[in-house]
Write a structure and sequence with these properties.
single chain, alpha/beta, 6-stranded mixed sheet, 31% helix, ATP-binding, ABC transporter ATP-binding protein, nucleotide-binding
Length: 365
C-alpha cells in the first residue's frame, strides 16, 4: 500500500510554514525514513498521513485514495502508529494495551487477547510480561509493546515517530535489529521519523532529507544520499564521516574468518598461554577474552575476562566487522552466526584490505 505526498504544504496562522510543497512517494512494502534537523517538518509530514494534522494545501494519498475522504477515526485504526516512550496506557496490562485497536475495531475480547499474546512473541518478548503494567517494564520493552500494539490489527501502513530515541544506544540498536527482522517477515509500508542520520541510513530503503522550513532537500537510497549529496546542506547533515557510513553498504563476504583459541566458562586447569583466548558459554556464545599470560585458579568465571567489544554478525555489512575488530581488546573482531554463536575472528587489516579492493562500495568523500 503506497503513500504519496503531492505538493503538500502545512502553514499555520502565524505564518510559520512547517512543510513546504512536499512531493514524494513511499513505495509499498518499504521503509522510508524522514530525517533532518529540528524544525524541518518531518513529524508534521508523518502526522498528515493519518490526519492528526491536516494539510493546508496539496494531497496525501494512501493506496491511491485521498486521506481527507476517509473518516479520521477509521483511517487511524487502519494505520499503525508508534511514538517515543511507546505511549502505553499505564492502567492497562501489556496484553490489554496491545489488544486496544482490535477491540475498538469490533474484535471479540478473547480473539483480541489471543492476537496480543501472539504479537508478544513476534516482537521478542516473553509471554509472562503480558500480565504486567507498563511501569514494570524497561524502556526497550515498552517500545516493543508499542510496536506490537501498532501491529495488532495487521495494518498495511506503520507510522513511527522517533520511536527509539528515548532509549540507550545498546537497546536502540537491538530495537533497530528487531524492526528490520519484523519488516523482513511482514513487509509493511513504513514511514519512520528520526533526527539520527545513522539510524536513517541503517533502516531506510529510501531516505528523505528535509531542510528547516519543510523543504525536501534530497530523496533517494541511503547509498545515493551518502555518495552523491545534492548540495552542501545535505553533505553537512550526513557528515564528514559519510565515507565511513558508506561501509554499511559494502558486503563483508570477502573477509576471511580465522579460527581462534577458545575456552569455556566453568573450565578448570587453565594455565597461562602467550596468546588471546576467546571465552564462550555452553551455547558457544562469546563472553569475553582471557588475556595473554593469564591463567585461572579454579573454574573460569566472567570476572576473569576482559570485555569483548562489539560482535560482528555474519552476512551483515562490513562496517560491523571493522567496528568489532577495533573495539576488541585483542584487536580481533568476533564473528557470530544468527544465533549468536562464535564462528571465528577477523582483524582490522583484513577488513581494510577488502575495502581497498572495493572502493566503489564506499561513499565518495
Amino acid at each position: 500500500m503506497a503513500i504519496e505526498f503531492r505538493e503538500v504544504t502545512k502553514a499555520y496562522p502565524d505564518g510559520t510554514v512547517a512543510v513546504d510543497e512536499l512531493s514524494l512517494t513511499v513505495e509499498d512494502g518499504t521503509i522510508t525514513v524522514l530525517v533532518g534537523p529540528s524544525g524541518c517538518g518531518k513529524t508534521t509530514s508523518l502526522r498528515m498521513v493519518n490526519r492528526m494534522v491536516e494539510p493546508t494545501s496539496g494531497t496525501v494519498l494512501v493506496n491511491g485514495a485521498d486521506v481527507r475522504d476517509a473518516d479520521p477515526a477509521l483511517l487511524r485504526r487502519g494505520i499503525g502508529y508508534v511514538i517515543q516512550h511507546a505511549g502505553l496506557f499505564p492502567h492497562r496490562t501489556v496484553l490489554s494495551n496491545i489488544a486496544t485497536v482490535p477491540m475498538l475495531s469490533g474484535w471479540d475480547r478473547r480473539k483480541a487477547l489471543a492476537r496480543a499474546e501472539e504479537l508478544l512473541d513476534t516482537v521478542g518478548l516473553p509471554a509472562e510480561l503480558g500480565t504486567r503494567y507498563p511501569a514494570q517494564l524497561s524502556g526497550g520493552q515498552q517500545q516493543r509493546v508499542g510496536v506490537a500494539r501498532a501491529l495488532a490489527a495487521d495494518p498495511p501502513v506503520l507510522l513511527m515517530d522517533e520511536p527509539f530515541s528515548a532509549v540507550d544506544p545498546v537497546v536502540r540498536e537491538g530495537l533497530q535489529d528487531e524492526l528490520l527482522r519484523l519488516q523482513s517477515q511482514l513487509g509493511k509500508t513504513i514511514v519512520f521519523v528520526t533526527h539520527d542520520i545513522d539510524e536513517a541510513m541503517r533502516l531506510g530503503d529510501r531516505v528523505a532529507v528535509l531542510r528547516v522550513g519543510g523543504k525536501l532537500a534530497q530523496y533517494g537510497t541511503p547509498s545515493e544520499v551518502l555518495r552523491h549529496p545534492v548540495d552542501d546542506f545535505v553533505a553537512g547533515f550526513v557528515g564528514r564521516d559519510r565515507g565511513y557510513r558508506g561501509l554499511s553498504f559494502l558486503s563483508a563476504e570477502d573477509v576471511r574468518v580465522e579460527e581462534v583459541p577458545t575456552v569455556r566458562l566453568g573450565e578448570t586447569g587453565l594455565v597461562a598461554a602467550p596468546h588471546w583466548r576467546l571465552a564462550v558459554n555452553d551455547r558457544g556464545e562469546p563472553r569475553g577474552w582471557l588475556a595473554p599470560e593469564s591463567g585461572v585458579d579454579g573454574p573460569l568465571a566472567e570476572s576473569d575476562l576482559l570485555a569483548g567489544g562489539s560482535l560482528y554478525r555474519r552476512g551483515t555489512p562490513i562496517r560491523g566487522a571493522l567496528d568489532a575488530a577495533l573495539s576488541s581488546p585483542a584487536s580481533l573482531g568476533v564473528v557470530v552466526d544468527d544465533e549468536g554463536r562464535a564462528l571465528g575472528v577477523v582483524t582490522a587489516s583484513q577488513v581494510l584490505d577488502v575495502i581497498e579492493r572495493h572502493p566503489e562500495g564506499v561513499a565518495a568523500t
